[in-house]
Every structure is written in C-alpha cells, then in structure tokens.
Amino acid sequence: MKKTILLTGGAGYIGSHTAVALIESGYDVVIADNLCNSSKQAVERVGKITGTTPKFYEIDVRDKESLSKVFEENNIDSVIHFAGLKAVGESVKKPVAYYRNNLDATLTLLECMEKGNCNNIVFSSSATVYGEENPIPYEETMPRGACSSPYGWTKAFTEQILIDASKADPELSVVLLRYFNPIGAHSSGLIGEDPNGIPNNLMPYISQVAVGKRDSLTVFGGDYDTPDGTCRRDFIHVCDLAEGHVKAVGYCEEHKGSEIFNLGTGTPYSVLEIINAFEKVNDIKINYTIGNRREGDLPQFWANAEKAQNILGWSAKKTIDDMCKDTWKWQSTNPDGYEK
Ligand code: NAD
Ligand code: UFG
C-alpha cells in the first residue's frame, strides 16, 4: 500500500519541490499550509508536473483542531515539517512572532501526531545552528553554536524539542535535516522560489536583476578573507535537496530515536562565482556593485556531506550551472512569481 506523507508548509519553495519528488517516488502527499508565504498555485503546479495534485488543507499548523482533522481524515505515516517563518532580518525585528509561529507549530504538530498515532517526523533545520564557533566544514557531531538571529534560534530550539520528545517516546523517530543554501528550481520552470517583496537571499535577487525587476545587485562585502574576497556558501539545487527528503523519510520510517544529517554538496562557491556562472550559462549581464558587509554574515561555511552519503545513500548531483539555468527558467517564465 502507498504510504502517505504530510508536508506542513508544503506549498512553499522547498515543500513544493519535495512534494514532486515524493509523488514521483510513489508516495501519497497531503499538504497543510496557511499560505502566509506561498500560493495555492504551487500545489496545483505540483499536480501539473506529476499528474497527481496533493490533497491540500489551508490551515495554520498551530490550530490544533484543524490539524487534528488532517490526521483523522488521512492515514499519515510520516510528517515532513517545513512550516515556519524564515526571514533572518525580519526575525531580528519580530522575535516574538518568530518564536510564536515556529515553536508553536512544532508543539501543536507533536501533540496531533501523538493523538493521530503518527511516529515519524523529518524537520527542516538549517546550517545556521552550527553558529560562529565551529570550524568548517560543518559536521553533524559538532555542538550547536550560538545562532546569529532569532530565526536561527527557533531552529536550534526546535531541534532540541524534537530530540527530547524522541528520548521520552521510544516509538518516535526524528530526523533533523540541516540545509545549507538551497537555490534553483524544478527544470520544468513551473515551480520555484517566489519571495515577497525585496529578496533577502542571493539567487532570487540575481534573477530579479536579470529579469529587470531590480536595477542592480549589491554584493555584501568584497574584503573577506576568502579566495576572491566575497563570502562562500554551499549552494545546493532544491531538487537535490528534495531527493534528500525522500531518502530521509525512508530512513525515518525504519529507525527510532533521532538522527541529524547535513544536506549540502560539500563544495563552496563564492558570491562572485555564482554571479559569473549565472551570466555565462544564461548569457545575461548582471549589474552589480560591491557594497558593505551585511551584519551577521559569516565569511564562509559549507557541509561535510559524508554522513548523508554513507547512511542515506544520498548525495547532490546537480551543478552550479544547473542551479543557475533552472532559476532563470523559473524566473523568466514567471517574472512576477505565482499569480497573486
Ligand atoms: P517557504 O516560506 O517557501 O515555505 C514555508 C511554508 O510554511 C510557507 O508555504 C508558509 O506559508 C508556511 N507556513 C509558515 N508558518 C505556517 C503556519 N503556522 N501554519 C501553516 N503554514 C505555515 O520556505 P522554504 O524556503 O520552503 O523553507 C521551508 C523550511 O525550510 C522552513 O522551515 C525554513 O526555515 C527551512 N529552511 C529554509 C532554508 C532556505 O534557504 N530556503 C534554509 C534552511 C532551512
Ligand atoms: N548576498 C549578497 N547580496 C544579496 C544577498 C546576499 O551579496 O543581495 C550574499 C550574502 O552576503 C551571503 C551570500 O550572498 O554572503 C548568501 O546569502 P543568502 O542570504 O542567500 O544566504 P545566507 O547564507 O545568508 O542564509 C542562509 C540561509 C538561512 C540561514 C542563514 C544563516 O538561507 O536560512 O544562512 O547564516 F539562516
């Protein structure tokens, strides 16, 4: 029988790509999302790509009554918990809203899972939990560090909540996925990243300059102690990341306790290398200037990606050129993102 996976926040950027990967791997997918940072169109387009539109509940995951109903109406085998607010800068200005949303969502979800007899949860964590103190590349055995934002702390606290819950309940299986820098889009150009307002992240900013929505990109800092003076990150194609979730769900269903996996490529690229790759592969000039450093940015970090390879049998396959090409396909065919 087909297994059913609930994706909280499944209408979002990573959730929608993961929905495609799960459906293509033979799973049934149910999505619960309040659409606070996404569009129902993403769910419909998952249907266009795969031929199967996921069952969709427009609910706030913190609403216990509504979420309980999702478990009552569906035989949920596992949950992938994407739902959360994710803008680092906004979290500094609105810490209480971030803690309220991201922590409450997890607590309510755990209560509903217990009631609904669902024991498997995969959580979207972030490389930000390694903090500033750890040496690079980051390994899962390293202690969590001091996070640079309330957003980061919601990830660190949620990790701890889930680890504690798994210690207390021998039936519970928890997989914590620490994403590095997801970019790119599905190669169909039908789904992709659709940020509200001015993008905070590098790739959506580059693609909005390319499509003419923004005049120029500011590169935040050209005087770092890195090979070309700009920051370096472990950029990973969102479809590779999505495949990592399929493997993680399989692992989660067969194990108990908690396990942490980095999802990254293991190879860093600089901001300038990304701009150059985007220009070359898409034959488009990106206007940019080198500006001041952005507060809170680390000079460089990337993953040791061996654990996911050894235990999940997963590694990233797509290149930087794929990431730039697929981003442009999405942005050029959907210049304003999903229809609002
Ligand atoms: P996204 O904003 O596109 O997706 C998150 C989804 O959660 C959105 O569709 C939003 O509407 C929904 N949501 C938020 N709060 C909710 C609530 N209370 N109830 C129901 N739905 C709610 O973000 P994304 O990039 O797809 O990220 C998914 C997850 O991965 C997030 O938890 C994010 O923090 C984490 N993550 C993202 C990145 C990244 O760079 N994109 C990196 C590390 C971790
Ligand atoms: N950058 C620019 N100009 C821009 C946007 C970004 O130069 O307009 C640079 C940043 O300074 C950084 C790099 O591009 O050096 C990547 O920046 P992003 O904002 O795309 O990604 P971050 O590495 O800052 O963010 C990631 C995750 C977050 C996480 C954060 C913590 O997306 O989820 O790391 O470090 F919280």
Describe what this molecule looks like in 3D.
The chain is an alpha/beta fold and about 350 residues long. About 40% of the residues lie in helices and about 15% in strands. The protein contains eleven helices and 13 strands. It has helices at about 15-25, 40-50, 65-75, 90-95, 95-115, 150-170, 200-210, 240-255, 270-280, 305-310, 320-335; strands spanning about 5-10, 30, 55, 80, 120-125, 175-180, 180-185, 215-220, 230-235, 235, 255-265, 270, 290. A seven-stranded parallel sheet has the order 3-2-1-4-5-6-11, with helices on both faces. Strands 7-10 form a two-stranded parallel sheet. A two-stranded parallel sheet has the order 8-13. Helix 2 links the parallel strand 2 and strand 3 (about 55). The protein is globular and about 55 Å long. The protein starts with a strand and ends in a 7-residue tail after the last helix. The structure holds nicotinamide-adenine-dinucleotide and uridine-5'-diphosphate-4-deoxy-4-fluoro-alpha-D-galactose. Uridine-5'-diphosphate-4-deoxy-4-fluoro-alpha-D-galactose binds near residues 151, 218 and 271. Nicotinamide-adenine-dinucleotide (NAD) binds near residues 9, 38, 85 and 105.
Gyration radius over CA: 19 Å
Largest sheet: 7 strands, parallel
Tell me the β content: 15-25%
The poorly predicted ranges are none
**Distinct bound molecules:** nicotinamide-adenine-dinucleotide, uridine-5'-diphosphate-4-deoxy-4-fluoro-alpha-D-galactose
Distance between the termini: 37 Å
Helical content class: 40-55%
Shape: globular
Counted beta strands: 13
Q: Tell me the strand order in the biggest sheet.
A: 3-2-1-4-5-6-11
H/E series, N to C? Answer: EHEHEHEHHEHEEHEEEHEEHEHH
The chain-level structural class is: alpha/beta
Q: Count of DSSP helices? A: 11
Average pLDDT level: 98
